[in-house]
Structure formats: structure tokens, C-alpha cells
Protein 1
Amino acid sequence: PGGFGFDLMSVQASATSRTQPSQLRDTVQQAGTGVKATMDELYFRAFVDTGSWGDYGAAYELFDGQAAARAEADADVLTLGPTANDDFEALNPTTTTLSIAILTDLKDVPATAIAEVRFLADVQRTDGTSTQISSNGSFYLRQVDGAWRIFAYRVDRDDRSVAEPSPTGSP
């Protein structure tokens, strides 16, 4: 979406049947494509898309059940924040990695997924200063009406001011 996508590091199978994970490669890759699409959309809406800053309804739609209400309560961790339009001018993702584990059921059908994300971005604030945003965590997904939706998560967010280089004089 909008030119943003995680760098997919790996998609691995975790089978509950006696099937070897290597025999599930095609099934798991297909599921991984769906999980990646959900995670790409989440981070696009929550951080990258300036048109979504402050209004994260499209991001919250990617959550299922009780996780949807919890996501809205965790807006300061899961998004750029409710006041992003007032606080920021631009965002540039610098590190965007995603690793996925797909758990299959006894019939070798993908049942759940764990998406491990690492998202770093440099953000230009409206006051002219810069901040580095760091969002790292685990998202737990399942298929709901044919799409992968997040039913639980654990995410850490850390924002650090970027020191501006001090001017140096020359002799």
C-alpha cells in the first residue's frame, strides 16, 4: 500500500501434524503473503501515510475482537499518535523488517501466525527537530473472513530525539 512494505526476512512453518515443515513450504508462503499484506497495511496507516495521521480507523480495522478496542487504547504505542498532524511534518522509514512463523493445524491448514516486526523511522517534527521512532514487537494473527487479522500483540515503542550536529567554527 502506498509504496510501503516490510523487508520480509523469513516465513517459517510450525506444524502440529506429522508433516515436515519443508513439505508445507508453498502453503506457508501463501499464508505469509497474506500476513505481510496485513502488517504492511498496519504500519502504512499507523505511521507512513500522512493522510492517516491522527485518524487511525483504517489501522484499527486490521484488529479482531477485543484486540480492536485495546488497539485504540494503545494508540500512543501502535501509531504515530493522536496528535501526529500537529507534531510531525514528515516520516522516513529506515529499518523495516518482518519475520513470520505460520502455525498449521492437524490438517496442515494455516491456523495462526506470529509476525515479528522491527520498524525504525526518522521523523521531522513541526518545530524543526528530529526524532527517531522505534516500534518492535510481536503480532498474533488468524484468518477472519479470508483475511489475516491481529487478535493479540506485544509492542514496544521508543522515541528518541536526534541531536542536531553542533556548528563548528573553522580557524
Protein 2
Amino acid sequence: MKAIMVMYDSLNRHFLPNYGNELTKMPNFRRLGEKCVTFDNSYVGSLPCMPARRELHTGRLNFLHRGWCPLEPFDDSMPEILKKNGIYTHLVSDHQHYWEDGGATYHTRYNSWECSRGQEGDPWKADLKVRAEDHPGSFGPFPKDPIGYNMRRQDCANRRHIKEEKDFPQAKTFSNGLAFLRDNKDCDNWFLQIETFDPHEPFFSPEEYQELYRKDGESATPLDWPPYGPVTEDKAVVSGVRNKYRALLSMCDHYLGQVLDLMDEYRMWDDTMLIVNTDHGFMLGEHLWWAKGIMPLYNEMARTPLFIWDPRCGAEGERRQSLVQNIDLAPTLLDYFQVPVPEDMQGFALKNVIKEDTPVRKYGIFGLFGSMINITDGRYVYMRGPAKKENQPLAEYTLMPTIMRSRMDPKKLKDMKLRQPFSFTKSCPVLEIPSAEE
């Protein structure tokens, strides 16, 4: 048995032809829909990037007790469980957050991994001459906070070393993934995760993909990095940024096609599961919002595209209405490889959903740590905001006091205390760290 996961970041299902968008040119996603089961009610659990990936590993909701974080010592990790049970696991990715303090325990759970550098503010190339103000795609004014400013300066430096399509991190990531498939097509018992940071902002892609969305004589907007906040720009700017996103989606579609081509060539559909998924969506002017995180979790962010081919049942070209979530992917892969699912996993194996749309839950909850909590039955969504503006008391529970790009500030740790174990911490007490609303 073999399995491939192709994972994207910030994939808005409303821009995909599989969910009704006829403007985006994505023939390979259409082809994917003909080969796989398409899920109409797939929802996130915890947002954003690393909380979603923690759920991918652990099959357990993250946002109720922790924000952005690494894997904990007590966490179950699906790739690591597979590895311990004789299933070879390999990760290829350009997702820069794996190489930071807040994500540094994820990629090492696999047997092997390869990283491709240069996405967004990845601290890759040193060019002391560039400034954030030189960034060609950012909205003004430039962020005053050091992190936002330095990310744009760094991305500007990185782009100077991306001159041809083969230089793009996504192209390198898929090249590494395809090499694994060619080298190991005749082997058995492996799981390959091809994970690209695209179409996460900035929406930077080769010119040939941008030309797909350019009318004759029209000059494209240079803007490809929208802010995290309300839309204040006019309709022309919103339309231009959406076309930048569509161009990057067409690039994603191109490389997905290469995976499908190899599966056809090597007849891998007979014994290889394929999962195509994302961590969450992205706001592109809908509801007058850009990006994610601070607005209500509208369906553009919370309701995600998901496609699965399971060779055990052979269902293809069909759609499923059962409510599923990101936390279901770990149990699904463990079940596929006939490995026991740990008791601490809250998700469900989707074998019977894929086969005959048998429901696995009546409702699902999702959200961001310290923010709105949402519940859905797949038809309606109830959103409940914090009871008080201060949103206190609020604490993070962890044994790994790091955040996205750094260790926690000692000032934040001075009032921490040891708390009795939770049911999922394997009898380990954890640090209770007060967290002020930001």
C-alpha cells in the first residue's frame, strides 16, 4: 500500500472549478475531480498554518488550548506512527514555517525530508542593499512592525534569485516529490507528502501564468501581497489581486498535473491513495476583507476543498456531503495502512465516507486560539465571539514555550505555573502560560 498527499496552503475553494468557479484555468483540478471523491462539506479545525498541521499529525483539535506551536512531547504524530510501523514517510516542502521555532518539530517526524527555500519572508538570501520599500507587490503603507517590514525586505531579496520557473520554490518542491515517485514506484509501504506553501501570499508566479488572466493591452497590477485587514482599495485593485491569485492557482494546477501524469504512467491508481487538501482558505475581498485571522471565519476560510482517491473502494468522480474535518486525515491514513488509531485522536477514518457517504459526525467545531469559536453541522455555522473584550482568563497549555518565529518572551513566562495533565498529555503536567489578547 502507498499514499500520496498533495497539500496546499491558503486554497480558497470558491476559486476552484470543482466548486463552481469557471474563471480559473485549472484543467488538472477538473481531472482530479474525475478521478477522486470530492468533499462538499470539509471544514478546518484549528487555524492558521501550524495549528492546522498539528491536527494533521495528531488528529486532535489544537485551538482550544494552544495557538501557533510545535508538536509537543506528548503528541501523537501520524507520520511518526507510520514510520514506527514500517511505513516509510517522506516530506518535500517549501513551507518556511517548518524551519522556524514554532514549527521545528514537525518535519523531523518523517523518515526523511527535503526543503526548498525562498517562499515569502523565508530568511534565505542575504542582500543588505534591499529595503522593504523596494518590494514590488506590497500594498502601502509598509508595516511598521519589525516582523512585517523584515518579511517584505527578505522576500524582495529572495525574488532576485528566482529568475526562471524552475527556480520557484513550488517547482523545486514538486520536482523533489516526482523524483521520489520515480525512484520508489516499485517499492511498497510508503507515504509521500508533497506540500507547497502556494497559493499563500504573496501571489508571485511566472509571467506565463499571469498572462492567462490578462486582457489584450491590459497591464497587470503589481500588487500581489494583500494586507491582513479590511478592503479599502477600489474594485480594479481587488480584481487585479484576484487575478494574481488565479495565476498562482494555475501554476499549482500545472504541477498537480505532473503528479497525476506519473500516477497514470505507473498505474499507481491500483494501490496508491491520493489526498489533495489544504490547511485553510483565504479572503480575497469577499465580505470586504483581505487574508485571514482577524475577521469572522467565513466559509472562504473555513470550508475547504478536499479530494481523496481510495483504491480499496474505487469511488471516482463522485461527491460526498458528509461533514469531515482536517482532524480526520491522520486516522484515515493510519486506517489505510492498517495501523491502530491512538485513543487521543478525535478525528475519524473516512473509509466509509469515501465509499458510500456514511457520516462520521453530526457537527464539528473550529476556530483560532483566543478568538471566536464556531460550530457547524455542514449546513449552518454558529459563531460565538469572546464574552468580554479582554477575553480573560486565557492561557496556553504547553511544554514547548515557542511561538511562530521565536521563543516566548521571558516576560510572558514569569507568571506561568504547572497544571495537572489533560487527558491527551500522556499523564504529563503542562505549563499554564497566561495569554493576553493581542
Protein 3
Amino acid sequence: LVNEMIEVSKSEILEKDLKLVSINISELLNRLVKRQVFLIEEKHMKTILKIEENLEIKADQERITKAINNIINNAIKYSPEESELIIRLYDKNKRISKKTSNQRVVLEIENTGVTIEKRYLEEIFNPFYRIEKSRSRKTGGSGLGLYIVSQIFKSHGFDYSIKNKENSVVFTVEFKN
């Protein structure tokens, strides 16, 4: 908890100190999913990856890695056994019009078998907020993960949201270059 609070303070203080570099987000995403294979297999989850190749974004490598890793980890941690983890990465403009050269990369991380009550969706990015109040060993966590994620995306100017579908939760990020 103390380490996460230090991380929050650091991200707020250093918010203006982003080291923007060109990142192959397709490769980064594949690496981050591989890092979580043990947890995915432990829950017997099916992983569906729909990742367009060689998509690039401009971002702070360390911070964006931390944010995406946290979202993937949450999707696994808060899913029931034998559910699905669906990860989509695509160029939004390519789907709209082939003429547009301005790339708008969209990442969607969806976990099935669970939804979040509507009243919690508005609170989920607040510091120390947890839907499951017990802070049990089963899910762990301090309620700072999604707050840190939101601060990282805000500092980059990226749009993000979390919403329910019929039997799943989808976290969406739009990376604007």
C-alpha cells in the first residue's frame, strides 16, 4: 500500500515529465499478455487476441506499460474461472476511412462472465475505491491500481472508459498521436 501511495505521488508530481517515444503497441501488448500466461492458465481462461500488427503510439514507455499491464491483470483477477479474456487492438481510422493518415489506435480489453454494478462504474477510478471492500487475499489490491491507470492516461491525453456489455466488462483506451 505504501509503495502504491508513493507511486501515486510520483505520478502526480512527475505528470509533466513524460518521456514520449514511439512505441510499437502491438508488440508491447503481446509481451504483456505473455507475462500473464500463468494467471490465465491458472483460471483456465480462453484468450482471444485480435491485435493488428505494427501499430505505433507516442507515449512514455514505462508508464504506458504499467497502465496496460494493470488493466490486463485486473481483467484476469476479477474474472471467474473458464471465462474469456478478449483483447482487441486496431486503428480506428482504418475502419472508418482508408484515406485518413492520422492514426487513432484503440485498445479494448474485455473479460467475460462478470459485470460491474452501474453505481460502481462512476467510482472505479477514484483513489482507494474498491468494489469488494474486504481487501481479501483472494483479489488483493489497495484500490489504487485503476486510479494510477487513469492518471497515466490523463497525463498522455488519452481517452479511456470502462463499461458493461451483456456478460462482460470492457476497458477501452483511445491513443491519440
